[in-house]
Each structure stands twice: as structure tokens, then as C-alpha cells.
Amino acid sequence: MALCPHPASAPPLSVDESAEGQVLSSFPFCDLNEDDLAQNPLFARLLSTLAKQLDETGLSVQVKKELQKAEREIHLHKMTWLRSESLFRLVQELLQEYHLKKQDVQISEEDKKFYETLEQCLLVTQCSRELDPSSTTARDKPSLLGLSKQNVLSLLPPDKEIKKMKQRLVKEIEDLLKKKCFNILCFYQPDWEGESESMKTVKLSRLPEYLENESKRLESLKQRQRENTILLQKQTHCYLNKLLACINILQTLILVHRLQTQNELDRKKTQYLEAKCQIMILKIRMEMVKLQMDIYTPKKIAVHRTIRNTLESALMSEKREHESLETKLSSFEILGQDFEALVKEYSTLRQSIENKKWALQEFSQYSK
């Protein structure tokens, strides 16, 4: 196996557009574009070499051949199994119809003998398969109830009845298959249900061709869908790259231009908040003035002014009287303790006189 040369010693490679398109078409599910191949020529050469040895799914040519061979063998075994399984299901369906039909309709002896022989042969065949060791069963498996395959096969009907049953079974199977094919034909094209049996038979012979064309059309649609999926993946990749580039540009705008204007934005925001605060203060003051105007009407203000003037006049009179009394008191304080004793004696006599006046008034009231 040849070694890959070092990038420094490798000759420059030039991959033309057709080669790049061929490499990309060989690996449709790879997340690559022509720019990636142009920037990595050694990788492009590697992919071009691998494209000759691998298919679009990543399998080598040899593995692909072995896989196709295995698929053909599996298909062959599957068809063999489906053939025997279909025949078995048809026989079972015939027996089910017989058991349902005999509940309502009188069955002839010939039909009864045919179905009983068919059922007996089917049961014996199933039992013999269970008892017969094969490559799919363990050879040392103990026999069921001590029975062997020969014991079960001895329960088959006579050869004459079996031969007669087989001759009729072919016709019954053909009729049942024909009925099912007509059902499939009518399901494929419901408009053909009302046509004659001969016309249905003719169209039934062409049904494989119709189904094959339909299968090809569906396969073409699937291929187109796969191509659209690949194209969508490429466009999605391109879109994501463009989106990342736009995000980087927006990030640059945010980190550079917005930070430069952040101080100006903060100053403007501060001014706005200050103006808003002043407006709120003025609004509060306006509400207070409005409340005062609602509470204090001109009539109430005039009354309050009158009360204020009266209270101020009374206050001035009290102040003058207070000053006069303080002047007299200061003049009395000059006389000293002797005057204070006279004042106490005068107060006592004044109180005694008042008491006697009250007593005299009370006495005069009760004496009447």
C-alpha cells in the first residue's frame, strides 16, 4: 500500500470542477462542498481514489458483489417459502370455508369426503413434520408420546382417495387463486370490477406489467426523493454556514459598536430618568394643589381668615395683659418677703370672705 506523501513535499494538485462534482456525487451523504475539496487537495485525491473502490453507500466492490449474491439466495429461499406458505394458507382457507359452510348448507357426500381427506392429510403432514428430525431440530430430541413419523403416516387415507383429492384440489386452488387475483385486480383498478370475467382475465395477464411499471415509477420517485434529500442537506449546510457568518457579524457589531455607544446611551437614559422624575414631582405638586383647592373653597378661606384675625387679636391682648402682669409682679417683687406675707394673709382673708358669702347665701336660701 502506498504511503501518503507529506503535505510539504506533495506536488500541488488542481482539481477541476468536473472532478469535484464527480467526487461529491460519489459520496452524496458526506457533508462536503467544492470549497472544502479545493482547500484540501490531498483529501480530494483520497476521495477520488476511494470512489473507484466504493459505491455511494460506502461498500467496497467485492462486498457489494457478495451482498448481492446473498440477497439473491435469500430472495430464492424467500420465494420458495412463500410458495409453500401460500399453498398452506390456501388449503387452510378452503377448510375454514368448508366448516363454515356445513353449518348452514347441506354438503354432498363427495364434497364431504374431499374436505375430510384434505384435512386428514394436512394434519398428518403437520404431525409428521413435528416428529421428523431435520437440520432445524435437535436430533436427540425425544419422540413425542413415543410416536415416530411412520406411526403418523400410517393414518393417511388410502392412496386412491388421496389421488382423487389431489386432482380436485388443483382445480379448487386455481379457482381460489383466480378469485383472489380478481380481487387484487379490482383493488388496483376499482373501475374494472363490473367488467366480464374474460376481460378481467386479459387484464389480469397484464397486471404484472402494470405493477412493474408502478414499481418503477415509485422507485423513480424514491430516487428523486433521495436526490432532493441530498440537495436539501447541501442547502441546509450552506444555509447554516451563512447563518453562522451572519451571527459572527452581529456579534462583532454588538461587541464593538454597541460598547462604544454605551456611555452615550447611559447618559441619555440618565437624562430621561431625571426628566421623568421632575415630571413626576410636578405632577405630585399639581395633585396637592388640586386637592387643596378642592378642600379650601373661597368661603372657607374667608372664614379661616376671620378666625385667624380674631385669634391674632386675642393673642395680642393676652400678650399685652401678660406684659402688664409681669410688670406689676416685678414691682411687687421689689417689696420683698413682707409683701409676700401680706399677700398670703390677703388671700386667706379673701377666701374666708368668699366662704362666708357662700354660707350666708345658702343659709338665706334655706331660711326662706
UniProtKB/TrEMBL annotation:
It comes from the Eukaryota. One of its GO terms (cellular component) is HAUS complex. Transmembrane segments: none annotated. One of its GO terms (biological process) is spindle assembly. GO terms for molecular function: microtubule minus-end binding. Signal peptide: none annotated. Pfam families: HAUS4. InterPro entries: HAUS4, HAUS4_met. This is HAUS augmin-like complex subunit 4. It comes from Erpetoichthys calabaricus (Rope fish).
